[in-house]
Design a protein that fits this description.
This is Probable 6-phosphogluconolactonase. Belongs to the glucosamine/galactosamine-6-phosphate isomerase family. 6-phosphogluconolactonase subfamily. Pathway: Carbohydrate degradation; pentose phosphate pathway; D-ribulose 5-phosphate from D-glucose 6-phosphate (oxidative stage): step 2/3. With 266 residues, this protein is of the alpha/beta class. It has a single domain, classed as 3-Layer(aba) Sandwich (Rossmann fold). 26% of the residues lie in helices and 20% in strands. The chain is built from seven helices and twelve strands. β11, α7 and β12 form a beta-alpha-beta unit. It is globular and about 45 Å long. The protein starts with a strand and ends in a 14-residue tail after the last strand. It binds the ligand O=C1O[C@H](COP(=O)(O)O)[C@@H](O)[C@H](O)[C@H]1O. The ligand O=C1O[C@H](COP(=O)(O)O)[C@@H](O)[C@H](O)[C@H]1O binds next to β8.
């Protein structure tokens, strides 16, 4: 259970005593969204990130979720991926496969990983093509506002520098308005070549969750959630503002240690 929870202006903040409690609530949240999406349109289109998120999702591999979640209805994507081989230690696909997907009965053909045998530019282009096909065949809904895909859930982590997916501070791709998936070759965090969902896609999702743990992220959590101005360079996580969808921040006590919380009080 959360130590603190508050909702304001379409955003929800949940703060947990420790990562164990956060993980339990995160598993409940994902399982509930999965059930609701399957009921509503027959599938659950979920985009994962890499990093600490996957181990925080670990409870989904355990009872009761391993049995109660309708895994066959999951269509799995990545909000960002490093352009490395799928068996490379830096691959977000490998992280999710080892930590989650190999432990639950997902359908292999529903797992949409990137083409890692081409350049970052081509990998982004190919990935957007795959997503367009699934929008056309109505596996993924489409936003009536932006014409972007409307994922049922996009799960993001946040780096200490405020990056989300592979959208880093001061990068031009933050301004991308047309592409759904773009690429970078100069990631400040290795490896340098990555593909990433753009902000219009992230902000078109029905649900976005940002999952953040650890004291090294406390400054960025404060700048983003307390909406400190000026915040230079502007932190990508602050630009995560779903147009119609819900935004939930799952934060542990150490990452929340510098929050003043004024933006969530009346
Ligand atoms: O490089 C990346 O970093 C972020 C944050 O990772 P974390 O380990 O600090 O949680 C991650 O969300 C992103 O997917 C990944 O490519």
């Amino acid at each position: 259970m959360a130590l603190f929870g508050a909702k304001k202006d379409g955003r929800e903040l949940k703060i947990y005593e420790n990562t164990d409690e956060l993980s339990t609530d995160l598993a409940d949240y994902i399982a509930e969204l999965s059930e609701a999406s399957v009921k509503e349109h027959g599938v659950f289109a979920i985009a994962l990130s890499g990093g600490s998120l996957i181990s925080l999702m670990g409870k989904l591999c355990e009872a009761p979720y391993n049995k109660t979640v309708d895994w066959a209805k999951w269509y799995i994507f990545w909000a960002d991926e490093r352009v490395v081989a799928k068996n490379h230690a830096d691959s977000n696909y490998k992280l999710a496969k080892d930590g989650l997907l190999s432990k639950v009965p997902v359908v292999p053909s529903h797992v949409h990983s990137i083409n890692d045998t081409v350049s970052a530019e081509k990998a982004a282009e190919d990935y957007e093509f795959v997503i367009r096909q699934l929008v056309r065949t109505r596996v993924i809904n489409v936003s009536d506002i932006s014409d972007c895909p409307k994922f049922d859930l996009i799960l993001l982590g946040m780096g200490p520098d405020g990056h989300v997916a592979s959208l880093f501070p001061s990068h031009l791709v933050l301004d991308e308005k047309e592409e759904w998936v773009t690429f970078i070759t100069d990631s400040p965090k290795p490896p340098p070549e990555r593909i990433t969902f753009t902000l219009p896609v992230i902000n078109s999702a029905s649900n976005v969750a940002v999952v953040v743990t650890g004291g090294n992220k406390a400054d960025s959590v404060h700048l983003v959630i307390d909406d400190v101005e000026p915040d230079l360079p502007s932190l990508p996580a602050k630009l995560v503002q779903p147009t119609k969808g819900n935004l939930v921040w799952f934060v542990d006590k150490t990452a929340a240690s510098k929050l003043d919380g004024t933006k969530f009080s009346e």
